UniProtKB/TrEMBL annotation, chains A, B:
The lineage of its organism: Bacteria, Pseudomonadati, Pseudomonadota, Gammaproteobacteria, Lysobacterales. Keywords: Transferase. Residues 51-291 form the AB hydrolase-1 domain. PANTHER family: HOMOSERINE O-ACETYLTRANSFERASE (PTHR32268:SF11). Pfam families: Abhydrolase_1. GO terms for biological process: homoserine metabolic process; methionine biosynthetic process. GO terms for molecular function: homoserine O-acetyltransferase activity. The active site is at 115 (nucleophile), 257, 287. This is AB hydrolase-1 domain-containing protein. The keyword Transferase applies.
Length: 313, 313
């Protein structure tokens, strides 16, 4: 869908938004949004049976039940690498609002966002609060934490180093490996990679290195460096005034999250402008818990959607 | 001092160990050892009045009082970049034992090590336990934690990327910046770098980036990539059987440490082969607390040295 958007930092631009709809036509709509590497294909469906990024939660009989809901997900602005300007979470929220317009949906049942998707959800609730009954924000706050921003800034420098030296893919793969570390936890690595390092040709190779290298290479094969740089940067540009969010909101916090400290989500809940509930979880998967803790996340989503449906009646 | 050492991984080698002595000749000797970038110049003294890496703890009237103690510190094997082989913490311990031999010191009062220095201290206590009354191990365990090892392995890949692309200094500076993040905490960064990122020429620059870049450049100007690679690797190669340490030991743990989890130091204390005390501290400086929490560290050192002197009588 082509759109004319007034981008917060880059001004008016013609952009293309690619989305996917799942589930029942004319049913209440739920917007789902994940991390910067999650896109429009949230789950397997009739049109595309390949696995999506959130099959555990989206599908027939899942917490976000496609037998009685309609589900919308989009590719983030910038994900195709064609838009090489600063992209704000507000731009993503405005794009989603424009997609609702195009679909003729006045008011969606819920916006369920995790990680960057939670940041965009907060922006959406602040800018287009009349378009949703309820927000579920998992592992995303009103701003990026300065430590996490520093971590991402260094990842972008890996890409910059690779780019300026003609080793783009290697720089991008290395950046992704550092990102993976930030998504996971010492608890998980301590269990999975407990073996001592092995010496190969006089150089130590640590137990986690093969796994991380695989993650990095797979990422670099699928993404452009521009998409990574602009979406990573977008997380750091994100700021929302919590008081501007008056939509009923469920905030899900993971105590082990290395990127989004529990304290930031506590502060968010205390300063939101509408009814807000904090649901803390513990997970050895840290920031990635929304992709891993299927049962616990499903329970929270079911509860939040029931509350949204109660509100919508 | 030239030495013939049997390196654990690289076999017999002629190496040169550079050390510095401070304080009173013939007084009881205390070995001090810091992180991989700390060297023989622990504190300002008569021969070299420039600041050392531990002036806060070593000097006249300090916790490690040079008016009544003799203090030995060395440059780590590998620190000059000339030894390009896997270096074990056991090699460093053996080098220090050889230095004691050369000084004619049968038994030192204490080995006080922090970070990598604590790892070497544990090795020293396991291999040469009859040469010290007491060990103080600050923020270092019997093995590197797998998550921390992964973090360092990726830092070494930054150096490798820079090296193979003719940008050695840039790769080394970037590696050091990631290391700095691991030494510090979100708590500190949250306070120091709370400003939103600024856009410069259409690219966001986060609040911590100037500080980190400065740290990286300063490091790259003073160190070789080989020294960094081999000493970083040495941390990951480190393993000690705690049961082999029978020397009375004080273990200092920082709860906020992102590299050395409190749980690892608890396990260390529970399995040490001799009398052991765990002294947990809280610090917004995380792994770098031994360089920053001067008063709290001084109290612990004073107490440990008094215990060592009691034991030596």
């Amino acid at each position: 869908m082509p759109l004319e958007l007034a981008l917060r930092h880059a001004g008016p631009r013609r952009v293309v938004v690619r989305g996917e709809l799942l589930g029942l036509a004319d049913a209440p709509l739920v917007i789902v949004a994940g991390g910067i590497s999650a896109g429009r294909h949230a789950a397997a469906g009739r049109d595309d049976a390949t696995p999506g990024w959130w099959d555990a939660q989206v599908g027939p009989g899942r917490a976000i039940d496609t037998r009685r809901l309609r589900v919308l997900a989009i590719d983030w602005l910038g994900a195709d690498g064609a838009l090489d300007v600063p992209i704000d979470s507000a731009d993503q929220a405005d794009a989603l609002a424009a997609v609702l317009d195009a679909l003729g949906v006045g008011r969606a049942l819920a916006f369920i966002g995790a990680s960057y998707g939670a940041m965009v959800g907060l922006q959406f609730a602040a800018r287009h609060g009349d378009r949703i009954e309820r927000l579920v924000a998992i592992s995303g706050a009103h701003r990026a934490h300065p430590y996490a921003s520093a971590w991402r800034a260094l990842q972008r420098q890996c890409v910059a180093l690779g780019r300026s030296e003609g080793a783009v893919s290697r720089g991008l793969a290395l950046a992704r490996q550092f990102a993976m570390l930030s998504y996971r936890t010492p608890e998980e690595f301590g269990e999975r990679f407990d073996a001592p390092p092995a010496l190969h040709d006089g150089v130590a190779r640590c137990a986690a290195e093969d796994y991380l290298a695989h993650c990095g290479q797979r990422y670099a094969a699928r993404w452009t460096s521009t998409a990574f740089l602009r979406l990573s940067e977008s997380i750091d540009l994100h700021r929302v005034d919590p008081a501007a969010v008056r939509v009923p909101t469920t905030v899900v916090a993971i105590e082990e999250d290395r990127l989004v400290p529990l304290a930031d989500l506590q502060q968010l809940v205390e300063t939101l402008g509408g009814p807000a509930t904090l649901r803390p979880l513990r997970s050895r998967y840290g920031h990635d818990a929304f992709l891993k803790e299927d049962a616990a996340i499903a329970r929270l989503l079911t509860e939040a959607l029931a509350a949204a449906e109660g509100g919508a009646k």
